[in-house]
Please model this.
Amino acid sequence: MDASRLKEVRRKTRDVLGDAPEAFIKAFPTLDSQQLGQVFSENLRSRRTALGLSQSATAHCMSLSLTAFRRYETGHSLPKLHTAIRWSLSCGVPTEWLLLNPRQLAELPPIHALKWQPLVSYISLANPDQLHSLTTLVRHQNPDFPANLTAPEERPLTLFPDAPNYYRLVAENLKPFRLAIGLSQSEAAGLIGISEASYRLYESPQHNTAIGLQSMYGMVSALNIDPTTMSINSRLYDYRCQQRANLWQLNDWVSGLESKQVDDTLLLVRSCLNHFELLQADEPAG
Model:
C-alpha cells in the first residue's frame, strides 16, 4: 500500500475510532516477527518481575506449560492472541502493554511505568470491597487519590470466552470495521502481513481461526488502533473500557505525586496485593 493510500485509511480510522495519541503511535513501530518477539519477551519478563510473579505462576495464568512460557519470555516464539489476552486478564494489565516498545515507556503517560504495574493490577482485579479498602487507606495519606474508581463485577478472566468463541467475536467485528474504513480484504491482508486467503479466515465466524500476535500487531501499528476494538459488543470490551477509565484517573493522580508519596503508595499497594492474593493464578482452562 502506497503512502497516500495508507494516510487515507488512517484518516478514516480516526473518523471511526477517534485520534490515537502521538506517543502511542510511536510506541508501536513497524516490526518484523523477530523484533516483535524481542519486544514481547522483554515486556513479559519485566512486567512479570514488576508484579513479583514466578515464571511457573505466570505460565499457570496463561494456561501454558513452563517450557512454552519460557520460549515466549526468551523471544524464541510468539503466542497466539488469546494467550496474551489470558495473561493480561490474569494480571490486570491491558494486552497492548505487552507490545509497547520498551524504549518508548519514558515518553508514555506515567501510569505505564513498570513501578505502577502493581497499582494497575490491583485496581483492575480488586472486587468492590477490596477496592474500597485500598481507596480508604491511600486517601488517608493522599486525599487526592481518585474516589470514583470502578471495580470489575467479576474476575476479569471469567469475562474471556474460550478461544473459538473469542475468534468468532473477532470475525464478526473485523469485517464491519474493515468496510467502515474502506479497506479491501487484499489491502487488510497486506497491512497485517499475511496472505489474502489467510485473512479471509480471520473474517469467517465459521472457521474461528486463531490470530497470531504478529498479525494483530500489524494491524495495531499500521492503523494505530486499540486491539480491544475487535472485541466490541462483549463483556470483555465493557471491562476494557472501564479499565481504561480507571487508568486515566490514576494517571492524572500519579502525575502530581512527590517521590515520598510514590514510595509510600507502592509499599501500601504491594501489601494489599499480598493480603488479598489478587495475583494468585486461576486454574487453567480446559
About this structure: The two ends are 41 Å apart (CA to CA). The mean pLDDT is 87. DSSP finds 14 helices and no strands in the chain.
